[in-house]
Specification:
- By secondary structure, this protein is of the alpha/beta class.
- It has eleven helices and ten strands.
- Strands 6-7-8-3-9-10 form a six-stranded mixed beta sheet, sandwiched between helices.
- Helix 4 (110-121) packs across helix 5 (126-139) and helix 5 packs across helix 7 (158-171).
- The longest helix is centred in the C-terminal third of the chain and has 18 residues, at 188-205.
- It is globular and about 55 Å long.
């Protein structure tokens, strides 16, 4: 059996409550494993704790208390300081955010941001980094990468920015790629193109993919296994086939039923 590249065990995340100096649990008892080349989808309604789970693994939650274990190829991530985590974020764990506009500096060219990311993690000259950036932009379907590199983020569409973000994430050859609602702000046609692109590139690089979404169609297209999240906990983990054919938990069945067209007079 292939050893997991990411193992999360009993992850718990608490946020402070100012009015009484206490804390409130947001994520509780979350455990999963992710093997190279496999796709784990985390689904659930908005506010269920999907993004918080992944941000806590990367040490990106300010003020939160994170407990439990998250091991990347045997290295414990929980408890590392920010200097140590910066060596992991990017080259070992990449992330695709749901809003690409917030990812980029609007007054800096794509080329500068791409090259700075590469050179901060790899020993490259500007020319070498520029060549790698152009190759990866071409790989994600941007047919004139030199023009894209010269442009500013506001000159690109949402779909193009999403492709640039994917190119940057994959250029560092991470072992794990986290995709947090990667198609939320895109039209249907662009969604299908981006999903196909993510799947193709993930298979080519054999990286593990952790996919966060509330879209069951995305899960059906990309995932191998699925974890269903409700109120900060996993209520069911299963294969994607089992999820759609034989869901076990009542909440999972409710999520599947929500795909159906609602009608007036239906009971909750």
């Amino acid at each position: 059996m292939v050893e997991p590249v990411l193992t999360v065990d009993n992850l718990q995340v608490d946020f402070p409550v100012q009015r009484d100096s206490g804390t409130i649990p947001i994520v509780r008892n979350v455990s999963f494993q992710l093997q190279p080349g496999r796709v784990l989808g985390i689904i659930g309604e908005s506010g269920s704790g999907k993004s918080v789970t992944c941000l806590s693994i990367l040490g990106l939650l300010k003020g939160a208390t994170v407990r439990g274990s998250a091991q990347l190829a045997g290295q414990e991530l929980i408890g590392l300081n920010q200097v140590e985590l910066r060596q992991i974020r990017g080259p070992k764990i990449g992330m695709i955010l749901q809003n690409p506009v917030s990812f980029f500096n609007p007054v800096t060219t794509i080329q500068r941001q791409f090259i700075e990311t590469l050179r901060s993690h790899r020993s490259l000259t500007d020319a070498e980094a520029r060549s790698i950036a152009a190759d990866h932009l071409n790989a994600v379907g941007l047919t004139d990468p030199q023009r894209v590199l010269r442009q500013f983020p506001f000159q690109l569409s949402g779909g193009m920015l999403q492709r640039v973000m994917i190119a940057i994430a994959l250029s560092l050859q991470p072992q794990v790629l986290i995709a947090d609602e990667p198609t939320t702000a895109l039209d249907v046609i662009t969604q299908m193109q981006i999903l196909g692109l993510i799947k193709q590139l993930q298979q080519q690089t054999n990286c593990a993919l952790l996919l966060i979404t509330h879209d069951l169609g995305v899960i059906a297209q990309l995932a191998d296994r699925v974890a269903v999240m409700r109120n900060g906990e996993f209520v069911e983990q299963t294969s994607v086939e089992q999820l759609f054919d034989h869901p076990q938990h009542p909440y999972t069945r409710s999520l599947l039923a929500s795909r159906l067209t609602p009608h007036l007079g239906a009971r909750r």
